[in-house]
Write a structure and sequence with these properties.
Length: 513
Amino acid sequence: MNGAQALMESLAASGVGVCFTNPGTSELHLLQALDEHPLVRGVSCLFEGVATGAADGFGRLAPAPAGALLHQGAGLANGLANLHNARRAHTPLVTLVGDAATTRTALDGPLDSDVVALARPMSAWVATATGAADAAAAVRAATRPPGGPATLVVPADVAWSPAGQSVPAKAPHPVAAVAAEVLAATARVLRHGPDTALILGGPALTARGLGAADRIARATGASVITEAFPARLPRGAGLPRTERLSGDPAAARTRLAGTRHVVLAGAARPVAAFAEPGSPGELLPETCAATRLGAWEDDVVSALEALAEELAPRTPVTPLEGRPATVPVTDRPLDGAVLAAVVAAALPEDAVVVDESNTFGGVLSDALATARRHDLLTLCGFAIGQGLPLSIGAALACPERPVLCLEADGSAMYTLSALWTQARESLDITTVVLDNGGYAILRRESRRLLGGGTTPSPLFDIRDPALDFVALSEGMGVPASRAATSGELTEQLTKALAEPGPHLIHATLPALY
């Protein structure tokens, strides 16, 4: 057994069952070990950013961590944007980076770089492999609360050299119980009632966590809000209604105005994503006092249930019955509201919704709040080009569930080659590309920062030449169609969701800004 085989066996013994890869020459022994291992499925991607984004999607939904295999520092650099998103989502995934042999370090070859330094900002843990035990350590680091991407650099000579037996990961660390004094202090805050907000995030966003928060809110009058960009959020009929904090800082400040007390249950303090002259980054009012009820490494769900038993012992959870959206007349041109209504009405039961719709996200989120039950995955780190890869990982983690990817036109072009992997793996993914012909979020932010009368930069426009997503999709093996009205989108979306395998719908919309 060589080092590569021992590393792969250790990953498999530690629960890694899928490895997304765009490999290169330095990791051919790792690739051979992946090909030969019966328990680890190799998934080919044409770009490293697709591999890391797909690993993120898999890790968010599967009970086991995902794997990715990349080529030296340059390949890792191509995948860093989606590793950044995965770190913000605390996704358990292990990235193997094949590197030059240690005997070549002094030669400074064309691909040589400081891989550890490149990996560190986007990883929760980084190490250079010397043996099979390091693979088990990487899995343990990725799955240990609060979790996140672990990067293991594998020099070529470590991979090809003889090695001992594999080493499985130890049992993961349990989450920590929230202290009794913290529970008591939080209960006192929540009793303040209507001027109190309970903000849920991260580990609190489960059916149990949402149910406990709903009981607390109904008994105390406090409001329940989820973080703006959750890694995974169960929503829809059968669950309590969830209100997401807006990603627009002005709207978020308006929503939180008048809040005097906030309880952060697994959530970070809400801050604006972008700086704005003369405006604070904090979204909470200056007079608002914040109480922290646990973080990602804490058992926040059990804490919420304990508080519900104390504050609302006889208050039941009130699940939504669900109200399918009314679809507008069939000849109505698509806009944000029409598209949202069609998607909400067509969404099948137990779907996974990957949302990288960006500037359409608010109206889509509102419409989906009362749709059939589903899991929502969002862009946690704001590095665009995640939606298409994320849907690959989601489909492989949950092959029995339909996946709907709502993808903005500009973002889609970052990782469009993900469609090729969707076709290659015959994944049940329906992608709706929302084409408004430009980077609408840049138009919005330029008006906010530079003034309402500012003429948008021509660099925000991507309609000259126009992108033909039907041709691009079909060129990579994914059947595609075009929709410009509610009737066309309803017909095409219903058909695509009913048929197995990947589909793409190019939805043409007016510019928002």
